[in-house]
Every structure is written in structure tokens, then in C-alpha cells.
Design a protein that fits this description.
Layout: H1 2-22, H2 33-41, H3 44-58, H4 64-78, H5 82-95, H6 100-112, H7 116-129, H8 134-146, H9 150-163, H10 168-182
Length: about 190
């Protein structure tokens, strides 16, 4: 069983390398700056559509094979198979090392599996390649809050809100942390 699984992994990796190197270099996702600007100014009702559009753009690697790995990883996460998800995302970042969404998604898989250190490392990589990735920033804020680092968590949530003012998780995080910092008025 182990031999078959290892053979399949090697075959998939070889296929992905072949497909990756047969594509023209420099293929990148569409610029999202206009969408991000609209998101900063959006009413709450429109923000959801803009977030979906931005996420769709950030999910385009420029390679059908890499997009398939992203989809398979997400599908594995949807059914709770975090180990398989992490494997798909690892293959993705191995073959597309500048694709921020691969790191972001692997960080989510790691975090959900209780692997905080690797999740932090992948969020750092996601933000290196996409500093506007409000999902990765939110992930950092959640981890810092979980670790009891309220200052960093608050800064993370505030950075999310600078990009996506209607992000309810970030709004709630800021409110929660400010209440904790000040204490409750009676």
C-alpha cells in the first residue's frame, strides 16, 4: 500500500512538473488593485461580492495543473481530510513557490490540524507574495489572539480592516480585544 501511494505521488509530481514547465513563464493572476480599492470603499451589501471576486482572482495560479491542486486541497479540507489537504497544498507550493494562495490554504490546513508553527510560517510566505491578502492577515490575527498576544492580534485585525472595512471577524476581533484591554464598564 505504501509503495503504491509513493508511486502515485511520484507520478503526480512528475506530471505537474511537466505541465508547469510546458506553460509560458510569467503567467500571473489578473491585477486586483481596482477590486481592492472598491472593497475599501464598499457598502456592506457589496463587500461580499467583491471579496468573492478578489478570492477568485487570487486563486488563479496561471497553470491549470496548479489550479487543480488548489481545488483538490480545498475539496479535502471541505471533507475534513486535513492531511490530504496539506499534501495537495504542499505539492502546490513546491511547484508554484510564489503563489500566495497555496501558502494561505496550507496555513489554514495546518492551523485546523493544530500545527500553529507551520501555519505561521505559511502565512508569512503568503503575505510576502501578496501583502494585501486580508485572509492571511486575519489568520495571523486569529493565531496571535489564540496565543494570547493581544497587541499583535489587534494590529492584525486593524490591518485587515484597512483593506476590508466590512470584515465582520476583524471587527469582532477588534471589539473583543479592546474590551479586554479596557475592561468592561458596569
Amino acid at each position: 500500500m505504501v509503495m503504491i501511494r509513493q508511486h502515485i505521488k511520484c507520478s503526480v509530481a512528475a506530471f505537474l512538473v511537466l505541465v508547469t514547465y510546458s506553460l509560458p513563464s510569467g503567467v500571473r493572476a489578473q491585477d486586483t488593485e481596482a477590486l481592492l480599492q472598491q472593497l475599501r470603499e464598499a457598502e456592506p451589501a457589496e463587500a461580499g461580492r467583491l471579496v468573492a471576486d478578489i478570492s477568485r482572482e487570487w486563486s488563479k495560479s496561471g497553470s491549470a495543473a496548479m489550479d487543480l491542486l488548489l481545488k483538490r486541497g480545498r475539496d479535502a479540507m471541505d471533507v475534513g481530510d486535513l492531511a490530504a489537504a496539506a499534501e495537495h497544498f504542499t505539492a502546490l507550493v513546491d511547484h508554484a513557490p510564489e503563489f500566495a494562495e497555496g501558502y494561505h490554504m496550507r496555513a489554514m490546513a495546518y492551523y485546523n490540524a493544530g500545527r500553529i508553527g507551520p501555519a505561521l510560517g505559511d502565512l508569512e510566505m503568503a503575505l510576502r507574495y501578496n501583502p494585501d491578502h486580508f485572509g492571511a492577515l486575519r489568520g495571523l490575527a486569529v493565531i496571535f489572539e489564540t496565543l494570547g498576544d493581544a497587541d499583535r492580534a489587534l494590529r492584525g485585525y486593524e490591518m485587515v480592516l484597512a483593506l476590508h472595512p466590512n470584515d465582520e471577524e476583524a471587527q469582532n476581533g477588534v471589539e473583543r480585544l479592546l474590551i479586554t484591554a479596557r475592561g468592561r464598564d458596569i
